[in-house]
Structure formats: C-alpha cells, structure tokens
Design brief:
Elements: H1 19-29, H2 32-45, E1 49-51, H3 61-69, H4 97-100, H5 142-153, H6 158-167, H7 180-187, H8 191-204, H9 215-225, H10 231-238, H11 240-244, H12 248-255, H13 259-270, E2 292-296, E3 302-306, E4 314-316, H14 318-326, H15 331-368, H16 370-375, H17 385-392, H18 396-403, E5 407-410, E6 413-416, E7 424-425, E8 434-435, H19 436-448, H20 458-467, H21 474-483, H22 489-502
Parallel strand pairs: 2-5
Antiparallel strand pairs: 1-4, 2-3, 5-6, 7-8
Helix pairs in contact: 1-15, 5-6, 6-8, 7-8, 13-22, 15-17, 17-18, 20-21
C-alpha cells in the first residue's frame, strides 16, 4: 500500500472564551469580599483606575453622587403571573431562630396586595449608611480574653507559659482540644505540671467552662462554681447519653432519685452554657455583609437594592489619562496606556453588568417569595434555579453563580440566596406544591402542640399532613424531624411522663 501526502481543508466551529469573558463569569460568582480583593489588585496594577469619588473622572462630586443614587431600572417585562400565597402561622423555628427573632407577627403586618414586579429592582445607595455594626456590637476575641484569664489565674513563669500554650489549642466552643500528655511532650514538662496549671485555670477562668476538655467537664466546672456538684448530679453528668435519650428509668436506677429530682437536675443542666467560647469573636470569622437589601416600599410591595457597602465603586481616571497623553510618550508607553484604558473600561462595564444581574435575580426571588416575607417560614414556596432562569431570560448556570455566596437582607433577617431555593413537596389534593422548609416548620408546630397522652408518631404526623394536602412519607417525616433536632415519639413520651410524675 503506497503512502502519499495530501492537503485537505475542513471547516469547524468552536466556542472560544476570551480572557475578559472568562473573568466576567468569575466576577459574577465572587462574594463581596473576593470582589473587593480583586478590585484592589486591579487598582494596584492599573494606574488609570481610581476609587469612585467623583474627582477621578473630572466631574464634580455632587454630580457623581447624584448619578450613583439614581435608580438604574432593569429590562421590564410583562407581568402575567399571579398565584395564591401559602399562609402559615408565625412561629420561630429552631433552624431560623436568629433570623426571625424580634420580628413582628404576621397578624400585625399589612397584607401585601402588590408584590414586586419583575424588573422593579434598582441599584441605589441608601440615604443612610448600612453597617453590620448596627446589628450587633463587636465582641472581644476568644484568644485575647483567654490570655488575660491565664495571666490573672497563674503567676508569671513556666506556669504562665503552659497556660498560654493551652490558649493556642482552644476551639470555637472554648474547649481544650489537646491532651495533657501531648502538651507536656511539646513543652518539655511533666504531665503533672500541665494538669496542675489546667486545674487552676479551669477554677479561675470566666466564663465558667473555658479550658474544659469535653462537654461533661464543662458542665461539671460550672456546677462546681455554683456548689451544686453533688454525687447525684455527678452521676447524671457521667451518663449524658442516657439524658440525651430521655431514659429516665435508667437514671433513676443509677442515682436513686425520683422523677421530681431528675426533672430539677435536668432543668439545672439546661441552664448551663455548653459552649462558653461562643460568647466571643474568633479570629478568621467575618461578619456577613448582605449584597442585597429588601425593604418595604411605600406602595405595599418590596424594594430591592444593592448594598452600597458591598459594591466597590471604580472609575477611570480621565484627568490622569489626559495628563499622561499630553506629554511625550514612546510607542511602548502609548501601547501600555491604551491597554490599561481598555482594561479599565472593561472592568467598569463588568462591575455594572454584575450589579444589574444580581438585582435582576434578587427581584425575581423576592417576587416569588412574597409569602415568606409577609407570613414567615410558613409562606415559603418551592423554587428552583431553572424556574428563576426562565422567568428572567437567563441561563440556569448564571443564576447559580449569582446566588452562590450572596446574601440578602430582608425584614425577616439575613439569608443566603440559596436558602430560598427549596425542594417541592407534592400536594395530596392536586393543588400547589409545598416548600420543604415550610413543611419542616409545620412538623415543628405539630410537635410543639403535643400534650400529655397525645404524643404523635411519625405515621400520625404523616397522616395529618396528608389531610392538610401535603403528601409526605413516614421516612421523610422522620428525616425532617431529625434535621430539626427533635427526638423520637418514644423519647418525647418519656420526658412528658417524667414531667407529669415530677409535678
């Protein structure tokens, strides 16, 4: 067989992403912290970029502020979707306790007659500065507080050095996560010296329970401070697994106490702090700065706007550009300045497009979850990325990037955008589907309403939900109940019986 060389022409198509397009996609999924770091890096590399103060572009500052505060409308579309809202009673769920605490009840809120329409979101700076410091005061660092406690508890010298080494191994809860043997080996001292220092610090440090090695020791330290660590309580602390299972019969056999005494001990233990370290800030933890702010509009709907504190303002320094070009430039300098100008203009446009996309997605989320904003968790509706993408005319991957690591501040608290995307639970009567989170909330309400002799099993709860139009299997009810941290019906019945006998 003879071999010969041939020339052939073939046509092919390929999608080539430019570096700028690729970076635009990355900017979309950046959190506000990552975006700020990226912008700072670009400003260091590009001399034509400057902070958006109005002076950089040669315009008066007042004109620039007016331009920034003016609304930037999105592409409006016809509003054709209407639907019924899922109502639910207002109650604080354990999973969302921090978000709902202190909010007004649904009965005191005006009914929403005009939910936000698609495209009504705007990019604007608030009249007042929004700061997370308004939500909570900054707490002292755990490490800084622990160091002060060590220096107050033990004298300067080797003992204080041992205590300072212990501080480095405290976890978020304030527990010492390194054994005394390992610590003694690392410091070149005896185990007895380490244990002596640890005992002194545990007895003196505040809050009580710091430097404990496990939960049982943490509770025991607090009870000793109250002079309540008697043999009976010590036996209960040594058998916390029985207490967690509500096995009061076994505890009665171990302690010799009756139901009344055990319930008093249980109430006292519940009054202790199992994680004393959570009263302090931890290095490396950042406060959540919401990307989007949702407030009540004067017309009864919702107003969606970007948080100005989370949006970096970058402008092209035209004054500097004119100054540089007025001088003599070489060909290399002229090419460099042209590249910097192109890069700066692209970054400004990319940030503007990113902001508009975030507001567009957030506006659709708010429109669909009007029931949640009005009634609470009971009004949360099932929603998918695909549904939002189709509604606003974007690709599902774009919506996924927008909602990743983004937070939205609502009158009911600050939530990650992904929180509003929940699994749909089919309706038993052919009606609208129910959100998985609202179903969890309903399960919690049913269990909270239990009384003596009327403890419901998972099958009973599934039957009640089916009558209410929620088609849920027993194993799914058990999964949701465990996710809420609620014990089984057997354990709940044991605790109720113990309380009845104690009373």
């Amino acid at each position: 067989m003879a071999l010969s060389a041939k020339l052939q022409m073939r046509q092919s198509q390929s999608l080539v992403m430019t570096p700028q397009l690729l970076q635009s996609i990355r900017l979309l999924q950046y959190s506000n912290v990552e975006l700020a770091a990226y912008v700072d890096g670009e400003m260091e590399r590009n001399p034509l970029l400057a902070a958006g103060t109005g002076e950089a572009s040669g315009r008066p500052a007042a004109e620039m502020d007016a331009r920034a505060d003016s609304p930037v409308p999105l592409q409006p579309r016809e509003e054709a979707a209407t639907g019924t809202q899922i109502t639910g009673s207002e109650s604080d769920s354990a999973a969302f306790e921090s978000g709902f605490a202190g909010r007004e009840d649904a009965g005191d809120r005006p009914e929403r007659t005009a939910p936000i329409a698609r495209g009504e979101g705007r990019i604007a700076a608030s009249d007042h500065d929004f700061s997370v410091e308004d939500l909570a005061e900054r707490r002292p660092s755990l490490n800084a507080h622990a160091l002060l406690e060590v220096r107050d508890a033990v004298s300067a010298g080797p003992a204080q050095k041992i205590g300072e080494a212990m501080v480095e191994h405290l976890d978020e809860s304030g527990y010492l996560r390194l054994s005394c043997d390992q610590l003694a080996t690392d410091l070149g001292v005896t185990v007895a010296e380490v244990e002596a220092v640890l005992t002194t610090i545990q007895s003196e440090a505040t809050p009580a329970g710091l430097f404990a090695r496990d939960l049982a020791e943490c509770l025991a330290i607090q009870l000793r401070r109250r002079n309540r660590f008697d043999p009976v309580i010590a036996a209960v602390i040594d058998n916390l697994d029985l207490l967690a299972r509500r096995d009061f019969a076994a505890l009665r056999r171990l302690t010799g106490e009756d139901e009344s005494g055990l319930m008093d001990i249980l109430a006292e233990i519940r009054g202790l702090d199992p994680k004393p370290g959570h009263a302090f800030d931890h290095e490396g933890f950042e406060s959540i700065v919401p990307d989007v702010l949702v407030t009540e509009a004067p017309d009864g709907g919702w107003q969606v706007e970007l948080n100005p504190d989370a949006l970096p303002r970058v402008l092209v320094d035209n004054n500097y550009l004119r100054t540089v070009r007025s001088g003599g430039l070489s060909d290399d300098d002229r090419a460099f300045i042209g590249e910097c100008q192109q890069s700066a203009n692209w970054l400004v446009r990319a940030l503007d497009q990113r902001a508009k996309t975030i507001v567009k997605v957030a506006s659709e989320i708010v429109r669909r979850q009007d029931g949640f904003l009005t009634h609470g968790i009971g009004g949360l509706k099932p929603m998918t990325l695909m549904a939002v993408a189709e509604a606003i005319g974007m690709h599902e991957s774009t919506v996924s990037r927008v909602t990743a690591t983004k937070f939205i501040a609502t009158p009911r608290g600050t939530f990650e955008m992904r929180f509003f995307f929940t699994v749909a639970i089919a309706s038993a009567n052919g009606g609208d589907a129910h959100s998985a989170e609202s179903v969890k909330h309903r399960i919690k309400l049913l269990i909270d309403a239990e009384s003596q002799g009327k403890v419901m099993s998972d099958d009973d709860i599934a039957a009640i939900l089916k009558k209410e139009g929620i088609d849920l299997a027993r194993r799914t009810v058990a999964k949701y109940r465990e996710a809420l941290g609620i014990p089984s019906s057997i354990q709940r019945r044991r605790e109720m019986n113990a309380r009845r006998l104690a009373s």
